[in-house]
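EI: anyone free to look at a 364-residue chain?
SC: sure, send it
EI:
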Amino acid sequence: MQKMPNWADVVLVPVLSLVLAAIISAIVILAIGHNPIDALGIMVKGALGNSANVSYTLYYATNFIFTGLAVAVAYHARMFNIGGEGQAYIGGLGAALACLYIPWPHWTLALIGGGVAAAVFGAAWAAIPAYLQAKRGSHIVITTIMFNYMAYPLLNFLLNGPIKAGGMEPATPSFAEAMHLPNLSAILGAVGISFSDRGPANFALIIALLACVFVWALIWKTKLGYETRAFGESETAAKYAGIKPTKIIMIAMLISGGLAGMMAINNVMGEAERLVLNAVEGAGFIGIAVALMGRNHPVGILIAAILFGILYQGGAELSAELRIPREMVTVIQALVILFTGALDNMVRMPIEKLFVAFGRKGAN
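SC: here you go
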């Protein structure tokens, strides 16, 4: 028996979680001597006040869409892939190598080549934890954490040695100008919409939206998606139906790692136009909260990613405007993640009890 309707699970629980996070955040802001209403206004204006700020918000949201989808695909197969950070790092390496060593004559070809390389490298980084889970019973959470901490030093070594551009900064040379992806200003300008060119949002946003459609079609409209969801619901029943666990684990993790790796289209190819050491900026971990808040559905992930984009860009403006330490802004972001992720059941369980109680009264 369903304890509460789908709309309550999809809308009511996340909204109440956000309200609780907002209340605690307001108390934090009051404690450091600022007006929470003013702070909220600054965050909203900083994230959405003009097209340049919107561009930054959409840039962050694009990263979170890719990593959120990566978490969701694995989650439907009953796996908690928290290795999106490392997979995004290695995906960035793949995109950079494709753009540095192949002379693509046009950005469209670079986008295809770099995007495929990013996906392949990200999937390859996820393949070993997937194999260990499928064949050796190693827990996917542990192995993906380990691979996160292996990806960063590997990239650090490469960016300070074999593929370093020179100088002090650990980074590759810039990609050729022909490979630069058009920013959102150029895309919207082509259809007569004025938009600032001072922000980093770029063509990768369109790829992220297409990725949402791809994941929706894959999970809910294909045989593989059905098998993945069936396996996620009950491994025993899936085996009885002839579904092979090894196949589902490997394919789901390869797709998950590939999606995380494709974040490089946005931050490596679209924004920095080279590979830098801190390119991922924690987006792999934020993707976990985005997927949880979005209930592992592409539409929910898109909305949650935009919300976290607003938090990131608005938080930066809040820190600059009120001179609030950046760490306090991080606390506010962490509270949202905490209430929408780890403390989800704290909100869900009372709501379920209310619906059950009202259902019994209605039956009587």
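EI: The CA atoms of residues 97 and 114 lie 8 Å apart.
SC: 👍
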